[in-house]
Amino acid sequence: MKQVVRTRFAPSPTGLLHIGGVRTALFAYLYAKANDGVFVLRLEDTDRERFVENGVEQIIKSLDWLGIHPDEGVWYEEKPGEHGPYVQSKRLPHYKKYALELIEKGQAYYSHITPEAMASLREEAIKNKVPFVYKQSMEPVQANSSTEGLPIRLKIGSGKTIWNDEVRGDFETSNDLLDDFIIIKADGFPTYNFANVVDDQLMQISHVIRGDEFISTTAKHAYLYDVLGFARPKWAHLPPILGPDGKHKLSKRDGDVDVLDYQAKGYLKEALLNFLALLGWNDGTEQEIFNIDELIEKFSLDRVQKSPAGFDLQRLDWMNGEYIRSLSVDQLAEVIKPFVPAQWLGDMEYFNKVLLLDSDRLKKLDEAKYIMEIFFEQPSIDIKLLTQKTNLETIKLWLKDISESISLINSAEFIHDKLEKVVRDTALEHDIDTGQLFYALRISLTGRTKAPGLFDIMVALGKDETLARLDLKI
C-alpha cells in the first residue's frame, strides 16, 4: 500500500515569520500537494521564555495572505484532523508518556547535575581542548532519589547513527559525539528535539522538510526514532538563503523581515511565492514565471539544490513587475486601492486611464502613489531643474507659443498624434529645438524628468489642465 504523503510546517512563535520560514512552508506545501498529500500546520510553542504573544497571529496571517493553507492543524479556528491538538503546549501528556517509557527501559534518566557543575565541566573541556559531550557517567552521586523538578535526559548508547537526506545524501555520526541531551525540561515542557520527533510520529508525518540549520541535530532525531521504536520519516534539508553578497546568510537588513512587510510594500503574493519557489529549486528549464498550479505540478525534492540560494531583491522586483503587468486594468486598480488616497478613486474611468499609462513603470504597488500623483495633484516646479537647458524667459515664450497652438485643438481631437503634430509644427515654425522644448514641457506638466510619454500625459490631463499647467506662475 502506497504511503500517504504528509508534510508539516512547525514554526516556533518566538518571533515573527520571516522569508526563510515561508520558503520552508512553501516547499512542504508544494510537496504535499504535488503528491496528493496532506499539509499540516503545527505550532512548537514549548520555549515559553521566548514566546511572542502576537507571533501565532502573525504566522497565520502571513500564510493566509500567501494562500499556504493547511489541510489540518492550527488556523483561525483549528482545522480538524485525527492527530490534534496541533499546539505543543497542549500535548504535554504525550511527551511525558514516552519519556517515562524510555526511563523504564533504561534509555533515559533524571539528571541531577546543576547548571554550575555543568559550566565547570564545560570550562574544563575547553581548557583541555577537547569537545564537551555530556554523558550519564558525569552525573553527580546523589544522596537521595527525589526526581521532583528534574529534567530528563536521553541516554545515548555506543555505536554510530546513520541517516539519509533526500537532498544531500547519507550522513554518519559517532554516538560518542552526541550529548545525553535533555528531552523533558525541569518545567515539564519537552525540548524541541524530543517534541518534534514524538509529534511527527503521532501525526504520521512522512516527510520532514526544513532548513539546513537542523542538519546538526538530525542525528539526535534519528537516534530517538530508533530507541522509541518509531519508523523514521524522510528528511529533506533545504539549502540556506544567502544575502546579496553571496557569502552570508540572509539577514533582516537584506530582506529576511516580517513577511507581512512585503504585503505592505505592495508585492503580489503570486510574485513572492514564485520568487521563493526558485530559491533552491528549479524544474530544469529556463522558465522563471510559474503560477501556483504549475509549481504544484512540477515540484519534486530531486530538483532541490544542495548549494545555497541567493536572495536578489532586484529579481523579486522584476518578477513583481511582471505579475503587475499581467493584470487587467480592473484587477490592478483593485489591488492598488489600498496604496493611493481615497479621493483619487472618485472617478474610476480617469483613474484607470492614468493607471494604464503608469503600469509599465510599477515594480511594487506602494510606488503607485508617487508615480500617479502628477495626474491628481498640481506639481511643484523646481526652477533650477526647469532651466537646466534654457533660461526661464525663453521657456515661457516657448510655452506661450505651444499653448496658443494646442488651444486651437478641439476637445474631440485632443489625442496623441494630433498633439504631437501641432507641437512639432509649432517648434519648427518658431525655430525651437525640440529636445529642449520637450524637456521644458515635461517639467512644466509634471515637475519631473521621468514620467510617461509627453503627449500621453497631455491626453490624460485633458486640454484645460494641460493649458493651466503650461501657464507657469513663476
Report what the structure shows:
The structure is a single chain. The chain is mainly alpha-helical and 474 residues long. Helices cover 42% and strands 9% of the residues. The chain has a three-stranded parallel beta sheet with strand order 1-2-3, covered by helices on one side. It has a three-stranded antiparallel beta sheet with strand order 4-5-8. It is elongated and about 105 Å long. The model has no long low-confidence stretch (mean pLDDT 94).
**Number of helical segments with 4 or more residues:** 19
Helix content: 40-55%
Query: β content, as a range?
Result: 5-15%
Shape: elongated
Which segments are poorly predicted (pLDDT under 50) over 5 or more consecutive residues?
none
Largest sheet: 3 strands, parallel
Mean residue pLDDT: 94
Number of distinct beta strands? 12
Structural class: mainly alpha
Helix/strand layout:
Layout (H helix, E strand, L loop, with lengths): L5 E4 L9 H16 L3 E4 L13 H12 L5 E2 L18 H13 L3 E3 L4 H13 L24 E3 L5 E6 L3 E6 L7 E3 L7 H11 L4 E5 L3 H14 L5 E5 L2 E2 L16 H7 L3 H9 L14 H7 L10 E2 L2 H13 L3 H8 L11 H11 L9 H5 L10 H4 L5 H15 L9 H14 L4 H13 L7 H8 L1 H8 L4
Helix pairs in contact: 1-9, 5-6, 8-10, 11-12, 15-16, 16-18
